[in-house]
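Practice set, problem 2.
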Amino acid sequence: VYKRQMLLYRNDAEAALVAAKKAVELDPEDSELRMQLGRAFQGRMRTDEITRQPVDRELRRAAIQAFEKADELAGGSVRARVERARMIGQRVQSQEAAERAFTEAVELAVEQDRPELRYLAASAAESFAIKSGRHAFRIWALREMIEADPSQLERWSKLATLVDGATNYGVIILAEMIYERPDDPGAHVLYTSYLANHGLTSDAVDHLNETIEGGLESPLLFEQLIRLQIGDGALAKARSNFVRMSDEFPDSETTARAEARVAIAERRNRDAIEILRDRVSAKENYEYHRLMAIAQYRSGDLVAASDSIDRALELRSDFAVEGVRLRAMIHYDAEEW
């Protein structure tokens, strides 16, 4: 059955390639048809990879030529240059050429003033950089993505982490983010989390207080301030800020979450469970379940805590260190080892 499916897949790819070639013969000056031809060659190459057949180098060369022609006929096509760069980057010995090709694609998007294409090309360049282990090129690609769309806070975070690994200057990257996005609460949360994680909690707290007093009032900023103050042992200040937060944002889900944080910090775990119960049933997310797990764990209900943290981790698409650590603690205390 598997062999039959692979044969059908291969036949479909071959038929698509024949159709693409025929379309180009009928209208050889159409840039989009050349793009389709290049993609058809790519599809044919993928079938060889899937069926574990040696990939014909002529297919790769033909795909590159198709994308080059598409670029030429369009008078400059970012998408065609990206696909060409991807093809070049498949060969280990051509990685420097691929880097130049990705750079040309990004430069064309800048020249055409197309930020969405600049982001697309830079994103493809980053993927190539990750696979090929080209650290400096990945930093460049992330920079280009941020220039194209500064609202992508995850990219700022990745860039800061990479720069930290090389120079310990990640804080400069995030300070630049704050300069670029002074009215974005998420940017301030990211920046102060970085400071706290690097032993600069007092600086993070000062920044949040200054930002709030400067007029950027958001429940996210208050919650971050409360989290940092609880973590720093300043529970009275955290409680005071929660009172202000509940006055200014009484109906916010973030306020309810902050109330649960304060209750847990004050060892009112049963209160925290009641606060979170309705929230968890109404809207599942990682942080609600994680806080519920903490409250249940500290109140001695290890079975419920285990269920809550397992559900929290199911809702996360990435690796959550604090969640995994909590699960390990719960399982250890429950003697599940």
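Problem 2, part (b): a different protein.
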Amino acid sequence: GTSGAPGDVTGQTSATGVSLGDFTQILVNNTDEVQWVDYRVHPYASGTGAGADCDYGVNLDTTFRIYVNPTPRIEVNVAPSNTICNNDIVTFGITNPNQPIHGAWQYILEVEYGPNIQGNDIGGVYTDIPPFVQDSLVNTDTAYSYAVYRFSPWIVDLDGDSCAVGETIIDTILVNPTPAIRVRAQDSILCNGEPAIIHIYNPNRFANGDWEYNLTVTPDPGGMITGFDPGGLGRTDTIINDPLINHDTIAHKVEYMFSPVRTPAPDVCAGGKDTTIVIWVNPTPEVRVTVSDLVLCDGDPLSIQARNPNDPIRGVWDGVLEIHIDPGISGITDAP
């Protein structure tokens, strides 16, 4: 007899008139759980001198049961997905589909970390089966890389013999890099009205999704700077050209903060390092002049005082004094 439904275990045969020696059966378990086959060996003597078979009944029968373990299998569920962000944790839910069995179900996990990938080295033989295993993956590059996990189950029976390794499950996890951004300003100190030109570069290569950046633009308070980009989310443009106008007499700045991200939602990879560019805009150069008197008597002293209203600025304030003299006027000295 056999366990289970017809066809659950195959390869068993019955025979009569079998001579002494080995009796070979190739038993196949077509299910995921242990099956058994019962055998009965019934001895008798045939072809005796009297020409008759001698059968002594069932009292001399030998019966035994053969247990046939299934081909070892394993079921693996990956969370959150087969593509993750840098520094994410990947979880493998482990299920043993071979229940019940005659012995102990185990598996070996082999892990291959791709270029620039670091993990927790979770490979090894798992005999005390947890419901899941986890690995924290770090991508140290700007391009995506991978980690490969091979789950190979086997069964050790109660006699200590091992069934051959069964179906191997292979899961490949793609690890996107941390979003990065490269930013270069043509000049960080501008004259009034000059354009602020900033070039933006994408150094990343993602397994999927899109590279974008969020731009936050912060001018000095007071409303003295105009012409700057309003900023925004989900930017992809590679150049900013802002004609910055300084309405004050002192230097003012505009800060451009670039925050790279990988989209779309819900698989957003953030955490990239922000890059801030500071653009200073000097005012239009001015001078304040005070004259002691506009009408003098002959020989009276004239005092001219020049004052710099552009303080502070990014650089050095300077100017040129030109003196135009009518004929007959003397006593002019150069400015200090």
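Answer key, part (b): The radius of gyration is 44 Å. The longest strand covers residues 145-156.
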